[in-house]
TrEMBL record:
Subunit structure: Homodimer.
Subcellular location(s) per record: Cell membrane; Membrane
Protein's UniProt name: Magnesium transporter MgtE
InterPro entries: CBS_dom (IPR000644), CBS_dom_sf (IPR046342), Mg_transptr_MgtE_intracell_dom (IPR006668), MgtE_N_sf (IPR038076), MgtE_transporter (IPR006669), SLC41_membr_dom (IPR006667), SLC41_membr_dom_sf (IPR036739)
NCBIfam families membership: mgtE
Domain CBS: residue ranges: 207-263
Family from the record: Belongs to the SLC41A transporter family.
Function: Acts as a magnesium transporter.
SUPFAM superfamilies hit by this protein: CBS-domain pair (SSF54631), MgtE membrane domain-like (SSF161093), MgtE N-terminal domain-like (SSF158791)
Residue intervals passing through the bilayer: 291-311, 365-387, 393-417, 429-454
Length: 455
């Protein structure tokens, strides 16, 4: 057993070797140190290093370990890494990938490189990879495994077990086995446990059970969420005629969910998701992921400036009103973001559907009113004691109004985005903050004008 301290020191030496002078003579040092480092640490170093440094490390790894590490890298990073590996190394890696993982990689490579690598595959592997590549990137068919073991409904359990034993190394999973009829039409599924337990003469048709399946053209996130909601270990994938074309497994689903969640988190905070680890991303790539959203939000924030300009004369009459602007805009933005995040999550897991729009509006209206009442009373008391009761009343009523408005809009926007076919996360935090800032200021000065009798 490798000592933890020794392996940590070896990992540090390996990282130093990778980030040092890059030339062929460094490979000997890297190879020596890499033998003392656990595979999990090797995977981390590959993921956080530049593609050129990762390529150096790949060249000294055993084939099986290199393939295991490569499979866990993001497809975009895999594509850059391929460009820094020698042709024989590339061929070995590509051949060892599952067809769905290979299709993801080819989708990131230049067409000429992908075509050349495709030609190096066997006819069977080339056919399966082409089948997966035929689906859009947003479709679940792009992520299924076409290597699926389907049992015919008229087989006996004994005959089915013979087929499973003969082909056990091919399919990605055999724990859940689809059952097909004539023309490979999906009839249902049987579990390997039940297949082993029943009498050998039992006909598969007599033990098949209904299955939860998905069409190959279904949206990948919706299919993945359904997979998780039913706690499946595998899900058959069919074409439009219900013919079995592949199977979806847990590792594919987790990859999809991780990617979708990373995208939602990034966009809800006003940036684009990175297609590789933070440390392996260049400074320019980090800037590109953030600058577009900053420009959009900066332009949209002009609305807030214009509102302040319109009500500039009110501020001149009661200067103390300016002190509460950060409090009110911040409260509105935070309230809207809370509602948007909650509804976006509910949409993602299927708890809320588009037709629930009015239910969501009614719920968030009441939630916002209750939150606004609590904050409004607090604001009324504190501001009233310090700046006078008329100012306290303005602050209290504004907090009530802003919270009610922000919660309602925050719950509404993700559903509208879903209806329009856009990403709900895009419509959430950044845009809601800007919208609530401008609208909240209009409410604030309208209430102040009425209560204080300004003109």
């Amino acid at each position: 057993m490798v000592d933890t301290t020794e392996s940590t020191e070896a990992a540090d030496r390996l990282e130093s070797a990778l980030t040092g002078r890059i030339d062929p003579t460094a490979l000997d040092e890297i190879a020596t140190v890499a033998q003392q480092v656990p595979q999990a640490e090797i995977a981390r170093l590959v993921h956080t290093s530049t593609p050129l440094q990762s390529a150096m490390l790949f060249r000294v790894l055993p084939k099986a370990e290199a393939l295991a590490v490569f499979e866990n890298l993001p497809p975009a990073y895999q594509a850059e890494l391929i460009g820094n590996l020698r042709e024989p190394e590339v061929a070995d890696i590509v051949e060892g990938l599952d067809p769905d993982d290979r299709a993801e990689l080819f989708g990131e490579l230049p067409a000429g490189v992908a075509s050349r690598l495709m030609k190096g595959l066997t006819a069977e592997e080339r056919e399966m990879t082409s089948a997966v590549l035929g689906y859009p990137k947003s479709a679940i068919g792009r992520y299924m495994s076409p290597e699926v073991l389907g049992l015919h409904e008229d087989w006996t359990a004994a005959a089915a077990m013979e087929v499973v034993r003969a082909r056990i190394d091919g399919p990605e999973t055999v724990y859940l086995l689809p059952v097909v009829g004539p023309g490979r039409v999906l009839r249902g599924v049987v579990s390997l446990r039940n297949l082993i337990a029943v009498d050998p003469d039992t006909v598969i048709e007599d033990m098949v059970r209904d299955s939860i399946s998905t069409h190959a053209l279904s949206d990948r996130e919706e299919a993945a969420r359904e997979f998780l909601s039913h706690r499946l270990i595998a899900m058959p994938v069919t074409d439009q005629e219900d013919r079995l074309v592949g199977i979806l497994t847990m590792d594919d689903v987790l990859d999809i969910i991780d990617e979708e969640d990373a995208e939602d988190i990034a966009r809800s905070s006003g940036s684009e998701p990175l297609d590789r680890s933070y440390l392996s991303s260049t400074i320019l790539r980090l800037v590109k992921s953030r600058i577009v959203w900053l420009l959009v939000l900066a332009v949209s924030a002009i609305l807030t400036v214009q509102v302040l300009e319109v009500y500039e004369d009110r501020l001149d009459q009661v200067v103390v009103l300016a002190l509460f602007i950060p409090l009110l805009t911040g409260t509105g933005g935070n309230t809207g973001n809370q509602a948007a995040t909650t509804v976006t999550r509910a949409l993602a897991v299927g708890e809320v559907r588009i037709r629930d729009l009015w239910k969501v509006i009614w719920r968030e209206l009441r939630v916002g009113a209750m939150l606004g009442s609590v904050l409004g009373i607090l604001g009324f008391v504190i501001a009233g004691l310090v700046y006078g009761w008329p100012i306290g009343l303005v602050i209290g009523l504004t907090l009530l109004s802003v919270c009610t408005m922000a919660a309602t809009v925050g719950g509404l926007m993700p559903i509208i985005a879903k209806k329009l076919g856009a990403d709900p996360a895009v419509f959430s935090n950044p845009f809601i903050s800007t919208f609530c800032d401008a609208t909240g200021l209009i409410l604030y000065f309208t209430i102040a004008t009425t209560v204080l009798g300004l003109s």
